[in-house]
Specification:
binds magnesium ion, single chain, 3 domains, two-stranded antiparallel ribbon, five-stranded parallel sheet, Rossmann fold, 7 strands, Helicase, Ruva Protein, domain 3, Arc Repressor Mutant, subunit A, alpha/beta, 17 helices, binds adenosine-5'-triphosphate, globular
């Protein structure tokens, strides 16, 4: 029988010492450069250890800035100190991207506080009031302090409004034997604008803003993770620096930096290289860009693909800084080739806005004085990505559009 296909990888000595340490979900025992934010959380949550009610909080900040990691770290420490002091403290974290209805959030909170699964709130079917009563019963039965962390809370509120936050922020008025504090975490700096003024003031009694890391701070974070996760001496000089600099360019995102480092080491591992160098980081960067862009491009609705293709076609014809009018005339030709009716020219403005917000094109508006305004539009897809190939692979209807020949005008 032939050799098992996993064998050669299992026998290879990996460059990783502990790959898990480089994954997002891993919570390091200390979080460099988040001392101030952690202190703010600790100052507030210590009230739970005193048997008092901590303030509700909202934590803000862009992706990858350690909001979830810092909150989990503090909650773990709070529970462990609570156990040592004989104080009953329960923390429950819910990700509102995955648990995204009022019913599911309340039932998840209630069920997390009940070990006996036969007494769990069912997946659907109860009136919401009954679920809320069950949650209160479970809180009262356990007693003590409860900290409910609603991560990515803006997703819940954007989809279903803020109704759920009213009963949750009112719990302390009704509880006798227990106390509760809500921590909302969000990327949306204008989150409180989505809330009713009363709820905003109850929930946001204390806000913490997480600011972007600079390159040096990311270097410290990576160095700590590399120590724990990667074999000594395998990272060449400059690897951590480059990962940090690249991530610092993207709003100082520590998750991005960890991804770059992990994928770079993995590339070296797969190649059988003994050291990880700058070239592996570049390969990792290309792959991450590709992984990020591909679903965005392939998921575009058909007419948006046609508009993007029209921009790319103009560019291959040497026409950059195009206006929406120039795009529209090429787009009409692509529609002919796809045998579909073009959208009206007004709608193209919205398509262009969407492609811009997805990071596929850049749009600069210039004023033409009394002749109005004009857009200068260019694609900004990284060179290592072939958007036309991605569009053809994901949508058969793009094939006749791409195979057709176009008589394009160039500017005089
Ligand atoms: N100061 C830090 N020290 C060590 N690791 C960190 C630090 N900040 C962030 N990280 C790591 O970066 C990754 C992303 O952090 P985290 O998930 O907490 O970001 P976030 O702010 O919650 O982002 P999002 O808004 O996208 O959910 C995690 O793996 C986390 O461990
Ligand atoms: Mg998070």
């Amino acid at each position: 029988m032939s050799e098992n296909i996993f064998n050669h990888l299992l026998s290879n000595e990996s460059l990783f010492k502990n790959r898990e340490v480089l994954h997002h979900g891993f919570i390091p025992s200390n979080l460099p450069h988040r001392e101030k934010e952690i202190q703010s959380l600790v100052h507030n949550l210590v009230e739970a250890l005193h048997g008092q009610i901590p303030s509700n909080m909202i934590l803000y900040g862009q992706p990858g800035l350690g909001k979830t990691a810092a909150t989990r770290h503090v909650c773990q420490q709070l529970m462990s100190r609570g156990r040592e002091l004989g104080r009953t403290i329960h923390t429950v974290e819910i990700n509102c991207c995955t648990i995204d209805t009022k019913y599911r959030v309340l039932s998840q909170l209630a069920n997390e506080l009940m070990l006996d699964t036969s007494k769990h709130v069912p997946f659907t079917g109860w009136p919401t009031d009954k679920v809320l009563s069950r949650l209160k019963e479970n809180m009262e039965r356990l007693g003590g302090g409860h900290v409910f962390v609603l991560d990515e809370i803006d997703h819940l509120v954007k989809r279903h409004g803020d109704d759920i936050l009213y009963p949750l922020t009112s719990l302390n008025y009704e509880l006798r034997n227990s106390r509760c504090c809500i921590i909302g975490i969000t990327n949306d700096l204008n989150f409180t604008d989505l809330l009713d003024a009363r709820i905003a003031s109850r929930l946001g009694s204390e806000d913490i803003a997480f600011s972007p890391y600079n390159a040096q701070q990311i270097e410290d974070i990576l160095a700590q993770r590399a120590d724990a996760g990667i074999r000594e001496g395998v990272l060449k000089e400059g690897v951590i620096k480059l990962c940090s600099a690249l991530a610092a360019q993207e709003h100082g995102d520590a998750r991005r930096a960890l991804d770059l480092m992990r994928v770079a080491v993995n590339k070296a591992d797969v190649n059988g290289d003994e050291l990880v160098g700058i070239e592996h980081v570049r390969m990792a960067q290309n792959q991450l860009q590709f992984d990020q862009m591909t679903p965005v491009i392939s998921g575009l609705p058909f007419h948006q693909k046609l508009v993007l293709y029209s921009i790319l076609l103009n560019e291959t014809n040497g026409l950059t800084n195009v206006s929406s009018g120039e795009i529209y005339s090429v787009y009409q030709m692509t529609c002919d080739n796809a045998a579909v009716t073009p959208l009206v020219s007004r709608s193209i403005g919205n398509v262009i806005k969407n492609l811009d917000s997805l990071g596929l094109i850049t749009t600069k508006t210039t004023s033409l004085g009394r002749y109005g305004r004009s857009n200068r539009i260019n694609s900004c897809i990284p060179k290592n990505i072939d958007p036309i190939q991605i569009m053809t692979n994901s949508d058969d209807s793009m094939k006749p559009v791409i195979q057709a020949t176009y008589r394009l005008q160039s500017r005089l």
